[in-house]
Design brief:
single chain, alpha/beta, Rossmann fold, DNA polymerase, domain 1, 7-stranded mixed beta sheet, two-stranded antiparallel sheet, 13 helices, 14% strand
């Protein structure tokens, strides 16, 4: 399979190591401490992903959201080869460094996972035994104030996962009209006070451009007073992040393309973190795994031409109490898995 592994081609990150790399550490024995790395990110539902994707020597797995490299590292430790992607250049650099001990099994590509068919096709790889995407924001991205994903600290209102992307969250809140801001907050944040918040933003930006996370959080808090433990700006920030990165459309594009890249028996695993994402994953996998479709106006059910999967998880897999205690951000994670049919 070495001839299929796309080392040093096109949009790839430079292959770590030289001459095929060194020996791969045994399963469960990473070559160095990962928690000391500057881009450390605790991978959620790690054991569940391993149990359901079943990585093993000879298998080729796609990790569409490399992030800090935690999921990829575990897959590599079990002997699988991994082709990974991420649109965050910083994540790629740090994860590639972290995974140097696995140079002979691993390569990384820069790009949004929605574009994986075009990018991966150039490498000569034609199919995968497993595919994984974890579509949450990494702990590092949340904690790195300068990225603007959180209002825990004051920072530029950015929110771009791909720092080369042209539009920031500041561009949206300072340029869009009330109707569009209301739509974004409603559709992507399910914010009940969307219109009131949009009006407050329009009024505030008339006197001063909204450039920082705390400035926006203060505007939202004034327009929508706190009624629970959750900060009033939480859903607005979620909505802006989704809008800036076009996350829901990216997820739909990935789910539409992924089944064609799975080998028979290969499995697709998707981890989502809020109801909007999980709803898309659930509905898509249900449609792709339903053998027959029925409608009231039809005399009888008809075969579903899109049925190419079977569900492995009927209900989403969630983190247990121990994982949530160690990593509270795992509380909202939902994992769904489906398998490619043989015919």
């Amino acid at each position: 399979m070495d001839d299929l592994m796309p080392w040093g081609r096109g949009t790839l990150v430079t292959r770590p190591g030289a001459g095929g790399g060194g020996d791969v550490p045994e399963s469960g024995q990473p070559g160095h401490s990962t928690r000391n790395l500057p881009f450390y990110h605790a991978p959620v539902l790690l054991q569940e992903v391993l149990d359901l994707l079943q990585p093993a020597p000879g298998k080729l797995i796609f990790d569409g959201t490399l992030g800090g490299g935690g999921h990829s590292e575990a897959l590599l430790q079990h002997g699988a080869r991994v082709v990974a992607m991420d649109q965050d250049a910083n994540a790629l650099r740090h994860a590639t460094d972290r995974l140097k001990p696995y140079a002979a099994q691993f390569c990384a590509l820069r790009g949004n996972f929605r574009h994986f068919p075009q990018i991966v096709e150039e490498t000569g790889v034609s199919g995968f035994d497993g595919m994984l995407v974890d579509i949450g924001v990494s702990s590092h991205q949340l904690d790195e104030a300068v990225r603007g994903f959180s209002f825990a600290k004051d920072a530029p209102l950015d929110m771009r996962m791909d720092t080369d992307a042209p539009r920031t969250a500041a561009d949206i809140v300072n340029q869009e009209d009330e109707a569009e801001l209301t739509r974004i907050f409603n559709e992507y944040g399910e914010e009940p006070n969307a219109r009131r918040i949009a009006r407050a933003i329009i009024k505030a930006r008339a006197s001063r451009r909204i450039e920082s996370t705390l400035h926006l959080a203060e505007i939202v808090a004034t327009a929508s007073p706190k009624r629970s433990k959750r900060h009033p700006a939480t859903l607005v920030f979620q909505a802006l992040r989704i809008a800036v990165n076009d996350e829901l459309a990216a997820l739909r594009d990935f789910l539409a393309a992924a089944p064609r890249w799975l080998k028979p028996g290969g499995r697709l695993a998707v981890i989502s973190f809020h109801s909007l994402e999980d709803r898309i994953v659930k509905q898509t996998l249900q449609h792709l795994s339903t053998p027959f479709l029925d409608r009231p106006e039809w005399p009888e059910p008809r075969k579903n031409p899109d049925c190419v999967l079977k569900l492995i998880t009927r209900k989403p897999v969630e983190a247990g109490p121990h994982e949530i205690e160690l990593n509270p951000r795992a509380r909202s994670a939902r994992l769904r898995v489906a398998e490619r049919l043989s015919a």
